[in-house]
Structure formats: C-alpha cells, structure tokens
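Bench notes, afternoon.
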Amino acid sequence: MTKKILSWSAVALVALIILSVAVVSCKKSETSNEDNNSVVGVWSGTEGNTDYKLTFSDNKTGLYEDFYHSSSGGVEHVYMPFDYTMTDSQSGSLTLHDDDGSYLAGDPEILYFEIISGNMVLYRYHYGNKETICLLHKE
C-alpha cells in the first residue's frame, strides 16, 4: 500500500513539474510575440539606394527618416515627425508633417503600415494603386 502511494506521488510530482514548465514557456512566447507585434520602437530597412528608419513612440507620434545614397557617393538625409493611428493591433497609418506641425506642400502625406510575422510593411497609395515602400525590421 505504501509503495502504491509513493508511486502515485511520484507520478503526480512529475506531472506537476511538466505542467509548470509548459505554463511558463507559454507565457514567455506570448510576451515575445506581443513585443514583436507592438508598433512602439525603432523599425529600419533598406529598399534600393535608400535606408529607412521609423521611430514610433507610445504617445502616437514618431520620427520618419530616410537616407538616400546617390551614385556619386553622397547621402541625402530626410527626417520628418509624424502622428500615427492604429487601425487594429497589426496595422495603421502615419501622417508626415514639417517640424512646425504643418503638412508638406499644404497636403498631408499619409503612409500605411502592416505588421506581418514581426516585420513591418510600409506602403502608400499612389493614384489609387498600393505601392510598397519598404520592408522594415524591429531593432
């Protein structure tokens, strides 16, 4: 009788250990997926001769930067603050503006983004066509 109680106790102890490891590892993966899918942070990528960097703050503002590398070896750096809104937890839009808060050339330039598998696709609509600008990775 004592042997049966000890063997069932051992089985219960092993099951408890396995269950606690499974719960802890699930919580870690949920947190890391959440961090990867959060828009807040620095995103960067390269398309052609241009390096892009977007910094999203948690107060719905950010900074857009691009670095164009010309064939002559020069680099043109453009930076503009932006405000952003989230459509859902994985997508949204950002409105670029000048330092003083005015819009570029009087009209707002709106870019869109989607987070897919931890990467951000940055795109715009040009004459009604969706044009991908760059694939960005979170730093």
